[in-house]
Design brief:
Elements lengths: L1 H9 L8 H8 L3 H13 L3 E5 L3 E6 L6 H4 L12 E7 L2 H10 L7 E7 L18 E7 L8 H20 L4 E3 L3 E4 L2 E13 L2 E11 L19 H5 L5 H22 L2 H11 L5 E6 L2 E10 L5 E5 L4 E4 L3 E4 L5
Parallel strand pairs: 3-4
Antiparallel strand pairs: 1-2, 4-5, 5-9, 6-7, 7-8, 8-9, 10-11, 10-14, 11-12, 12-13
The structure holds biotin.
Amino acid sequence: MDDEILRLLRGPSGSFRSGEEISRRLRVSRTAVWKRIKNLRASGYDIEASSRRGYRLLRSPDLLTPTEIKPLLKTKWMGKTIHHFQTIASTNTEAYQLALRGAPEGEIVIAESQENGRGRLGRHWVSPPFLNLYLSVILRPELLPSQASLMTLMAAVAVAEAIERFSGLPPVIKWPNDILLNNCKVAGLLNEIHSETDRIHFVILGIGVNLNMEKERLPKEIRAMATSLKMEAGKAVSRKEFLSCLLESLEKWYTLFLREGGAPVLAAWRERARIKGKPVKVTSFGETLLGRAVDVDAEGRLILETEKGERKRIVAGDIEYKKERQ
Ligand code: BTN
């Protein structure tokens, strides 16, 4: 019923709706309407009440509820079904379960906070309430499991593009899929797949973007390496507007990837990562390697030329950029 009330109050902007009209349209008592208005106010909606004229919506909160997001969506199919949670263990875990139960491509899971936000390589993703974006998208591409890494590069390109379109700031991608602003991590991706040997059943694109996080809220251990859009832009950002921008980029890049294959994704990824020739330290499955990044290959693996002159292809891990030796 909250959605219905908000839809009526959103009508011609700045206008009042009488309690009598709302109760008639929703077929509930005026007392019931008043109770819902009180609840909406408690959720952050600024609603003026006048005994003569009725109710008027003055301001909506920056929540990621379907009610708030749907009017802003610019996508054709992505995000049309939204599973929203105040708090949840991990949006990826929830999306995975939904996909196992048959949820179609394009459904998304969003939470205002995560109790067990998961990062790559078993790390924790700090997920305090109402500050950032914690999003998981269910996709069902007809691809081979070996092409799954390209999906991750595709998502990194889409996130970087959305950040740039939204803020004007120029993000850089760090292999495989960290998004940096000013050398500090602003967003990360945790993509999980469910597949058989020669077919992907579904992919869960898990995306965390630090939007309005303040420096003090970041755990000390990552303070020097992490940032948020607010910290970089110097002002708070609208989470729902950002989400709309992100879904638009994601739908565009995913559609392009399915239609034209990996080439445009790899070109955009290379352009944003500028990795060729950089001295790097790679940590992969407990091993540390020093060398120079040559490129990423057509499957998204990092090609490394080690200090001993060997070429290696790295499937998973982390890199750190090293200073050029003089
Ligand atoms: C990383 O850089 O380590 C990846 C971080 C991914 C975090 C996002 S937040 C939404 C989704 N749900 C999770 O539990 N993790 C991802």
